[in-house]
Amino acid sequence: MLEHGDVVAPRSSRDEGPLHAYERYSTKDPVEALALSAAILSTNQLVVSNQDQRFEATCRAVRVHSAWLLYMSYGTDVVVDRLGTSRGDYLAVVLPIDGHVQLRHQGSEIDLVAGETAGVTSSRDAMHARWSDQASVLTLRIDSQAVEHALGNLLLEPPPADLRFRSGPVTGPARLSLAGTAELLAASYDGKDPDSPLPALVTRRLEEQILFTVLLGLDHNYRARLLGERVRPGRRSVREAIDLVSAEDQATWTIPELARAAGVTVRALELGFRKELGKTPREFIREQRLIRARDDLQRANPGDGTTVTEVACRWGFWHAGRFATSYSERFGVRPATTLRSGPAVR
C-alpha cells in the first residue's frame, strides 16, 4: 500500500526482477521518475545519457519498520546525482542484480557489478552514479537512527552519534550476506498474498537481520570494537534480558521472570541495567513496549476494527488515559492519530 497522497503511475509491462506485486511507480517520463523517487530516497538530478534507447523507470518497494527494500531500473543509460540533501537520514546498500553501476561517493570510485560487487552510501553525502542500460538493482534503505540504536543495543550503551560507514566496494562474504538478506526479504513478500501483511513477529525478525547484517558486514568506525570486545558477566545478563523483551509479540515478561531467565536476582538485574543502559529494567521494558505499540498502530487498518485500547492492552498498558499520555510524550502524537493514518507500505 502506498503512503497517503502518493501518485500511482501506470503499471509496467516489464517482467524482470522481484517484488512484482509491490510496484511503487513505472513511468517513461524522466521528470516524473525524479519526483516519484524523491518520495522514498533523496532529491536527485537525473540525466538520460542515451536518447536512442527507451527510458522506462521502474520502482518496487516493501518496508519492514526502519528498512526498505527497493527494486529499481531505468531501461537505458542514466546518470543520477545526489547533492547531499535527502528525505530523511539513511544508509543505502546498493546490490546490482543485472548490469553495472559506476558509483562515486566520499571520494571513492567503485564499479558495482551484478554478482560481484555491492556499494554503500549515506544520504548525508553527495553521490554520482552512472547506470548501464541493462542495470537493475536491489537497494536496502535503512534509517540511520535505527542502525545507531541497534549498535547501541549490541554494545549495551546509548546509541552512538558518530557512527560512520566507510565508502568502498563490498565483496566476498560481506556482499553475499547482504545479498542473501535482501533476497530473503524479497522472497518473503513474493511468496505471500500481497493483500495479507506479514506477521509482526516475522517483520521484526527481518528488520533485525537487516540491521545486524549491516553492522557486522560493513566497514565502520565501531566494527573492530563490536567484534573484539569481551562481554563482561554483568553485561551478559542484561543482554539476555534485552533479547527476551525484544522477542515479545505481546507483553509477556515480568521483571522477576526476566531475572530468573538471565540467572540473576532482581536486584542484580536492576543494577546491571542502571550500569549498562542508565535506566531500570522497568523503564527499558516500558520504552520498548511503547515502540512496539506504535508499530502495531502504524500497521493496523482502522477499518478492520482495531482499537487503541486493544493495542495498548496487548502491550501491557491497561489504563487507556495513561497510555495515551505516555504515547504522546514519547512520539509527539496521540495513539488515535497514528491509528487513523493507516499503514504506510505493506
UniProtKB/TrEMBL annotation:
Keyword Transcription regulation among record annotations: yes
SUPFAM superfamilies: Homeodomain-like
Keyword Membrane: no
Segments for region (Disordered): 1-20
Keyword annotations of the record: DNA-binding, Transcription, Transcription regulation
PANTHER family: HTH-TYPE DNA-BINDING TRANSCRIPTIONAL ACTIVATOR EUTR (PTHR46796:SF12), HTH-TYPE TRANSCRIPTIONAL ACTIVATOR RHAS-RELATED (PTHR46796)
Protein name per its UniProtKB record: AraC-binding-like domain-containing protein
Organism expressing this protein natively: Amycolatopsis saalfeldensis
